[in-house]
């Protein structure tokens, strides 16, 4: 089984509801491709480390995905994200191999690193968005 | 002081990741990554940080991923 983490950054001018709707759409695509969305996190509005498309903030969404080997709709999802100009950035990372490797080195400490329980909230996040982070899902 | 100390104080030159038993460097863990990006936002070389080769490799990868998502900067101007 493969696990992935998919993070994308949405234009902050898109309303929270629309972000949720978009996320929903991508989740459906993922599900249609035979994978499961096992984790969903919204980090809310967060300051970008550098401006992208003249914007200084972005709304971050993280999806944790599990998929049985073989087919998955992730390339398709990525393709759609590329074409969506409301999405400033996206990143898909396959995590199962690295986590497994980590687990075999320090079986005890592994749980901590798994998928990263810590979100980079606070720190760069600006006022109201920070609160919205925990909501939804 | 009577005689100048020959041995000057050295920071711990131990790989932080080995010490803390972190085997998966998460690109989302901005706090952790920031410890390895000094003022200029360059990746701190391991000759300075003392990070072991394996962990420097993981760290480098994580920093680059975080940069892509604008979690940490490429440069500060």
Notes on the structure:
The complex is a heterodimer of chains A (137) and B (77). Chain A has helices spanning 16-32, 74-83, 96-105, 110-113, 127-132; strands at 2-10, 35-52, 55-67, 87-94. In chain A, strands 2-3-1-4 form a 4-stranded antiparallel β-sheet. Chain A is 34% helix and 35% strand. Chain B has a domain at 16-68: Irregular (30s Ribosomal Protein S18), CATH 4.10.640. The N and C termini of chain B lie far apart (43 Å). The interface between A and B is medium-sized, with 34 and 20 residues.
Write the topology of this structure.
The complex is a heterodimer of chains A (137) and B (77).
Chain A: E1 2-10, H1 16-32, E2 35-52, E3 55-67, H2 74-83, E4 87-94, H3 96-105, H4 110-113, H5 127-132
Antiparallel strand pairs in A: 1-3, 1-4, 2-3
Chain B: H1 16-20, H2 30-34, H3 46-49, H4 53-68
